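Next comes this protein.

***
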Amino acid sequence: MERRNPVPGQIYKHFKDKMYQIIAVAIHSETKEKMVVYQGLYGDFGVYVRPYDMFMSEVDHDKYPNVTQKYRFECVGVVGQGCTEANIDNQVEVCKADPVADIVESGEGEEVANPDLLAFLDAETYEEKKEVLVAMRPRITDRLINDIAVSLDVIVEEGDIEKRFRSLLYCVSKLDEYEVNRLR
């Protein structure tokens, strides 16, 4: 079976067990070489670029004889879903995830961010952030509320989770209102 092209939002596992999310497939402006732009889902969440052919290449099993993974990077899912042809072809469904834990552990015991949190942080406007927040309501947790509040530099008082969610949504609505009025 032919390997599919990386698509923004897909999660790939490097053969050394680190997890990465695809940001884009880009073209080098000078050489016209195809490049993959991806972000680490661990540590400082660094952003990296690698030539497409290298990204898609097989592991050098002579150099790494103990590695069982066939490819240097292998798709393990799309934010909130598994990596199947159906959900890769239907990227509009990417953020309609099943319930997930606040934190997922990578193969090395490191914490990686919640896909709902990543979707919220990736939203470019406060209006989009509101939409993402409303969509994640069935999966909201105190930890997720706290993480989002920190990202917005707001305080959401402890208490009933429904009240905290409404308070957070109110804050995002006010930030959206400010963002719109600020540009007038």
